[in-house]
Amino acid sequence: MASATLKFETRDGRGKNEARRLRASGRIPAVVYGGKDGGKTIAVDPKGLAKILRTQQGANTLIKLNVPGGGDARVLVREYQLDPITHELLHADFYRVAMDKIIRVPVTVVASGEPKGVKQQGGVLDIVHRQIEIECLPADIPNQIEVDVRELMVGQSIRVKDVATNPKWKAVTDPEMMLLHVIIPKVEETPAPAEAAAAGTAAAPAEPEVIKKGKKEEEGAEAAPAPAAGGKKEKK
Hints:
This protein is 18% helix and 33% strand. The protein contains 5 helices and 13 strands. The chain has a 6-stranded mixed β-barrel with strand order 1-3-2-6-5-4. Strands 10-7-9-12 form a 4-stranded mixed sheet, with no helix packed on it. A 3-stranded antiparallel sheet has the order 8-13-11, with no helix packed on it. It starts with a strand and ends in a 13-residue tail after the last helix.
């Protein structure tokens, strides 16, 4: 179980102006949920949090929020917001955990080894689901769950119920949910030259989509009669 320490400061202000002020000073707004005081507004260092999220444990890292001159709390990342262009952290939500109480968390499933169906039968390993949800104590959250796939042949699969049990955690995802299987890759048939030529002749080129407003204007222009050559304008 990975752990890290993150410094934070309490804050009283809310709203967009406060968030912009915090980001300009090198911090981001965040909220800690859980505990007697409910949601607690804080400010954290985005670089420190980004470093934690980039680790193998990621959002499942048990974080100790270190209060300058005060106590600390154990939290996990509930969710975070990124800038769509720069991908910089904009906001984060944490939830407080008790070290003696069981929690539910999603954990990544990783395939271990190369299936026989890939080496001997020309199949490919298809990952259907990459995570399962488990129950455990905060200190027992695994970095990842490895699944041995070396004996898999084409047509065989591994489901949640096939994952090896562990005394420190229990899978709570549907036991019948498929995680991965070995399949034969699909091969697209190449049409014969004569068939391809016939299909190319029969297919009409696609016309670009016309914006409705422009189409109406063009139709209106075609409907208006052209003035006769040398004709006089009618008096109104």
